[in-house]
Amino acid sequence: MKKVKLIRYFKEVLMNRNRLLGLFLFMAIIIPQPSQAQLGGYYHMVSVYIDFTYVVREMTENEDPGNGYAVTASWPSAASPVYTHELLSFDVGDTIAVVPVPLVNPFLLQAYGVDLYLNLSEEGDMFISGTYPTIGVEDCSTSITIPPVEDPATYQLGGEPIVDEAAGTATWGFGIV
């Protein structure tokens, strides 16, 4: 009795397996498979890592009375110093600091007011909109700003993809024209 039930069970498993295999082959033949990835779509930025590099630039304004790049300490005050000592000095082109801004999740992006979208068409057109960090200069003072962005552009894919079959990925070169 047990042998008959076991044989019946294996026959049902084989029939179900064959049906699933047939269904998969039918779908693979009937449903068209694209030969390459389709990039067209609407993308929303979920993280960004930015390095702001502060570099000494040439002065264009004569607002600085000493017209130099020295950091000084004065006693008793900078307004009426009795003694002034130079702590640091910089030349044009020197890097003062590199400030990393790791906005690595949507919560941090929202906290800084960064919200960027990318709309790609299959024909090579794209449109960038939202807000994104950049550098603003006003009265010889450099600051980080988050202005609105609306930029139309075009793009091109470069060459054949690098395919990693184990990971199931394909990587293309992507260039903004």
Shape: elongated
Q: What's the number of extended β-strand segments?
A: 11
The major beta sheet can be summarized as:
5 strands, antiparallel
Average pLDDT over all residues: 73
Discrete helix count: 2
Separation of the first and last Cα atoms? 74 Å
Helix fraction bin: 10-25%
Query: Stretches where pLDDT falls below 50 for ≥5 residues?
Result: 1-18, 20-36
Task: List the helices and strands in order.
Answer: HEEEEEHEEEEEE
What structural class do helix, strand and pairing data support?
alpha+beta
Strand content: over 45%
Cα Rg? 31 Å
Strand order of the largest sheet: 1-6-7-10-11
Q: What key attributes describe this structure?
A:
2 helices, elongated, five-stranded antiparallel sheet, two-stranded antiparallel ribbon
